[in-house]
Amino acid sequence: MKRIKKKRFWASCFCFMAFFFLLITFQVVVELGRSEQLTSKNSVSQNNAFREDEFQKYPPLFFKRPKLDHSAGKKLHRGTYPILLWWSPLTGESGRQAQCGEDVCFFTINRTYQHNPMTKAFLFYGTDFSIHSLPLPRAGYHDWALFHEESPKNNYKLFQPPAITLFNHTATFSRHSHLPLTTQYLESIEALYTLRYTVSLQKKNSLRKRLAPLVYVQSDCDPPSDRDSYIKELMAHIEIDSYGACLHNRDLPDHLRNPSSMDSDSFYKILARYKFILAFENSVCGDYITEKLWRPLKLGVVPVYYGAPTIQDWLPSNKSAILVTDFPHPKDLAQYIKGLDADDREYVAYLEWKLKGDISNRQLLAVIKERTWGVQDIMKDNYIDAFECMVCTRVWENIKRQAKVSINTSLHWDLLSL
């Protein structure tokens, strides 16, 4: 009997202690919730970079994507949004709030925001990037983002490892960028398929009586790729019509001598009459590809290409361009082109992909289909807008990730302290 009473006593004690523990735990959770709400309210009131009076300084909100509904619009004025500061001005806008999917960011060129606690990223335009003018000291929560669509010739320092590794987000010609701009000079796959400018082989052969087989148009002379030296040697072995300032030997019509006419139909029609176009880039760099390649492919002319070592990854088919690097000497290249010029069947083999409308390069097709920006396409953002939104989204991902880690860490230590 005494044993039973003793067991009942200890059972009662255990139940009481369990109830007491649950009661204390409940109170702790309630207090944590109140404290979190209070902290959140204080954080908004103290750190809000865009109070109502601040919004009056800037023009109406601009959204790159469809506008938010009325209730969401109110939320814009109540929330806090990261500031993305163009340190090397590209857009020229003093202040603009933008919607990127579900994320909102404020873009500005106003350097007074450098030390604002809501400034999360600095955006740099590569052409104007200078190591002598940087937003230093760099805080641990400051991201740096680079937009540079040009070749290393434009700013060679950026492509050295100590420089390029400074950036958390990049948009360059390299396929390894966070936002690759490799196809920035190709508006669409349809532009490659079009036969709008294509001149028949019969007519090209007829025009060969007064035109050279090769054409060269370039006014940026003696660039890092040293293309002019190669072409000068090539001229000793095959006839080349050169319309530009570099190695000039043939004049364009008066109305086409202005550089702005290089994208006109009249200029395209002159180039389309030739069998081959010398497409030499100003820099030899992986994935750096310009209109020098895409233009002849669009016109139905075979490009003789020198530039990106990775060019085969981007050609519409395995036989759509003649690669200079396949030949040990300009004389060997000249002999090969002469052979194609004299053999219609072999020449047409380089144009079959276009005439049949068959692009076999799946990577090229996928990249054009999946890119988030457009070229001369009013239905899509341009690549600058896409770059801004890419940085905005990635900044928000970091903010959300850090907030989640902070909450989990706080709860962990609170539970350990019980």
Task: Give the topology.
Elements: H1 2-47, H2 52-55, H3 70-78, E1 83-86, E2 96-100, E3 103-108, E4 119-125, E5 143-147, H4 161-164, E6 169-171, H5 189-193, H6 201-207, E7 214-216, H7 227-234, E8 240-242, H8 265-272, E9 276-280, H9 291-299, E10 302-306, E11 322-323, H10 330-342, H11 344-348, H12 352-355, H13 362-370, H14 383-416
Parallel strand pairs: 1-3, 1-4, 4-5, 5-6, 7-8, 7-9, 9-10, 10-11
Antiparallel strand pairs: 2-3
Helix pairs in contact: 7-10
Subcellular location: Endoplasmic reticulum membrane
Domain Fucosyltransferase C-terminal: 213-400
Domain Fucosyltransferase N-terminal: 83-180
How would you describe this structure to a colleague?
- Residues 213-400 form the Fucosyltransferase C-terminal domain.
- This is Fucosyltransferase.
- Pathway: Protein modification; protein glycosylation.
- Its main location: endoplasmic reticulum.
- This protein has 418 residues and is α/β, with parallel strands linked by helices.
- It has 14 helices and eleven strands.
- The strands form two sheets. It has a six-stranded mixed β-sheet. Strands 8-7-9-10-11 form a five-stranded parallel β-sheet.
- α9 links the parallel β9 (276-280) and β10.
- α7 (227-234) crosses α10.
- The longest helix has 46 residues, at 2-47.
